[in-house]
Design goal:
The chain is an alpha+beta fold. The chain has 17 helices and 24 strands. Helix 4 packs across helix 11, helix 5 runs parallel beside helix 7 and helix 5 runs antiparallel to helix 9. It is found in: Cell membrane.
Length: 684
């Protein structure tokens, strides 16, 4: 511990009792609960809001060369539990050659409080907190303390809108979990740490704040380099750094944005371009350039999703509905905007849910919802219903949540059609989307949601153009009898999609789960057949859906979950690949063998196309065998968090991900669309 910090600690311990009788004046604290009526058995967020006077500052958990971090002492009701205080991204303050990690403006520590289960509504929950902290200017330091008491009442967990907005601002200031382990190395008095970060993510003001004491010389300058998806920071090592078994810290990307992570000992590459040079992140235009590039890639990726077999029939039917509407400009534009709104809203909602899960510490990735077999069952029934409608078994009039999903049901129908298209398109990540969605996970929330919106705009773009460009609509075939034949043909890819969903359900829930899903689809088909018969006779019959929906809901509740496991026999087929694990990867690297690693999921259409069209080919197997290329496959169908964290460590948010390891070199990320020649060249 530096001498100055030790002296300050002793002074603080001596001075604190003498100052306890007067309220602190230099940093004003407040204890606030996000909800004053938390629900029993749930968690409520508390905040200790700190407001320093001008010229004064408080300290991070690790204060650096000088200072003292805050200390919290709770008095809580029986059964209640307070989590550790969460600190926002700190700032640097160099005084007299000493580096301080501080907060010079308003900031807040967030604490999660677990409320005991079984408490009756109206139960009072007295909360007391005693805090000691250090307030400093560039010349003096004053130990301060405070005691706070609030009383909560067990209720329904309601949160006031203004209070929620206030807490959301404080949450946004916290570093987000990187979701991947970094590596650090101490050699020749230099501490070098490698942090996985997408090449498209801006890091113009990158700086490493170590939470673990004794890792680096705090005041020493840091050199930051970038080599693809790896950010490397070099700094003078502390004398005890070589003995550390783990180092925790925060990588600040700019003044208010950071990533928290844990690093383990290991080799760290020394190459890469200095940030700010031609090869650095700043050359791409900083944060604005990163957002613009990622937005463009997401837009292109969304555009390509329109050719997927589960999306193309829906887009085609909406295009044909415009053909039926003739030259009605107002109708065409209204439907185009409604369709776009549905697509973008679902993409942004899924993106927000993904960011929320990651902020809570989960290693979730894009299409995370498809890792739940209950979602697969719902999609199976929905796609089956659409396929049967396209095949002519029944006609959609007005069903529940917004009108016809695949007919020209006006603006509401167009909106729900777009929402459906976006939801079922998420299993696919095209060649432009991997880097864009990976970057979204490390950008500020607003920028990240902009990228998800770009994905939605790309998906909606063809129909949007048809709605606003009359010349394109005039190129559509005129209505006629051929439309019914075309409609029947469009049912084929939808039936194939339903078949694929049934297979995925079997992989996630076993044979019993797949049988239950097919049984629910059969019940739905019988109900829709009955409805179609009554429609032919001019009589209503939608009441027949009630039993089928009851069966579906019951099956969703009891659906088993039997996670799919990649076995040695099936993992890679002709390549005889082994299941992926970081332990096995490390062992193969020690053997000095080249390694091809790929990550897949049963619900990922792009993955399956690559596997059948490129990976599982005889010429690829022969080339790999000749050069002794090892193959590892990671099955992410069930959302394995270990695989999720490894994927994130390479700047990606989902599958597919293809990596090639040459002995002694950093892993190379391959394109998301593979060809046999791409793979055989690796063994050349």
């Amino acid at each position: 511990m530096p001498l100055l910090r030790f002296v300050l600690l002793i002074l603080a311990l001596i001075a604190t009792p003498a100052m306890a009788q007067r309220a602190p004046t230099h940093i004003a604290p407040r204890l606030i609960a996000e909800s004053e009526v938390p629900a029993a058995g749930r968690t409520v967020m508390l905040a200790l809001a700190m407001s320093p006077e001008k010229g004064w500052h408080g300290y991070w958990a690790n204060p650096g060369d000088a200072g003292i971090g805050p200390e919290f002492k709770w008095t809580l009701p029986a059964g209640a539990k307070a989590g550790p205080a969460q600190f926002p991204v700190p700032h640097r303050l160099l005084i007299g050659g000493l580096m301080n990690y501080v907060y010079e403006g308003d900031y807040a520590h967030l604490i999660a409080l677990d409320i005991p289960a079984g408490l009756a509504p109206g139960t009072k929950l007295p909360i007391s907190l005693a805090v000691d902290w250090l307030a400093c200017t560039e010349e003096i330091c004053v130990p301060e303390s405070g005691s706070f008491a609030i009383e909560l009442t067990v209720g329904d967990g309601t949160i006031d809108g203004a209070r929620k907005a206030q807490f959301d601002r404080w949450r946004a200031a916290l570093p987000r979990p990187l979701g991947a382990d970094a590596r650090f190395q101490v050699k020749d008095g230099v501490f070098r740490i490698g942090v996985p970060l997408p090449a498209s993510a801006a890091a113009q003001d990158a700086y490493f704040f170590p939470l673990t004491d004794g890792a680096i010389d705090y005041a020493a300058p840091q050199t930051v380099r970038r080599d693809g998806d790896l950010l490397t920071i070099e700094v003078k090592a502390h004398g005890s750094a070589a003995s550390l078994q783990a180092v925790e810290g925060v990588l600040a990307l700019d003044r208010d944005t950071g990533l928290s992570f844990k690093a383990a000992p290991g080799a760290v590459a020394t190459g890469g371009a200095l940030l700010g040079s031609d090869g650095g992140a700043e050359g791409a235009g900083g944060l604005a350039g990163t957002i613009a590039t990622s937005f463009g890639l997401a837009l292109l990726g969304g555009l390509l999703l329109n050719i997927m077999p589960c999306v193309f029939p829906i887009l085609s039917l909406k295009a044909l509905s415009l053909a039926r509407s003739g030259e009605d400009e107002r109708t065409a534009r209204r439907e185009a905007l409604a369709y776009t709104a549905g697509v973008v809203l679902v993409c942004v909602a899924l993106g927000a849910a993904l960011l929320g899960l990651r902020a809570a510490g989960a290693a979730a990735g894009w299409a995370f919802q498809l890792q739940d077999p209950r979602v697969i069952l719902v999609l199976l029934l929905l796609v089956s219903g659409i396929a049967l409608n396209l095949a002519g078994l029944f006609e959609i009039g007005s069903i529940g949540v917004g009108g016809a999903l695949v007919s020209s049901g006006g603006a509401s129908g167009a909106f729900w059609t777009g929402a459906l298209a976006a939801f079922i398109a998420t299993p696919c990540t095209g060649p432009f989307m991997g880097a864009a969605l990976g970057a979204a996970l490390v950008l500020p929330a607003t920028a990240a949601l902009t990228i998800f919106a770009g994905l939605g705009i790309g998906l909606a773009l063809p129909f949007l153009l048809l709605g606003f460009v009359p010349a394109l609509r005039r190129r559509l075939p005129r209505p006629g009898g051929w439309m019914e034949t075309f409609r029947r043909l469009l049912s084929i890819p939808m039936f194939l999609t339903a078949l694929g969903l049934a297979w995925i359900l079997g992989r996630q829930s076993g044979v019993n789960g797949m049988t239950m899903g097919l049984g629910a689809a059969l019940a739905l088909a019988v109900a829709l057949w009955w409805i179609g018969r009554r429609q032919s006779a001019g009589r209503p019959g939608w009441f027949a859906l009630a039993p089928a929906l009851a069966v579906a809901i019951a099956l969703i509740v009891v659906l088993p979950r039997q996670p799919a496991q990649a076995s040695t026999a099936e993992a890679g087929g002709i390549l005889a690949a082994e299941p992926f694990s970081e332990t096995r990867l490390a062992a193969l690297q020690k053997e000095g063998r080249p390694i091809f690693v790929y990550f897949t999921a049963d619900w990922c259409l792009t993955c399956k196309v690559n596997e059948k069209g490129a990976i599982e080919r005889a010429e690829v197997a022969d080339a790999f065998k000749a050069k002794q290329v090892a193959v590892l496959v990671g099955d992410w169908t069930d959302g394995d968090p270990a695989i999720g964290r490894f994927i994130e460590s390479h700047g990606r948010s989902g599958v597919p991900l293809y990596l090639f390891y040459q002995p002694g070199a950093a892993p190379r990320i391959l394109p998301q669309v593979l060809t046999p020649s791409t793979l055989t060249a690796l063994a050349g």
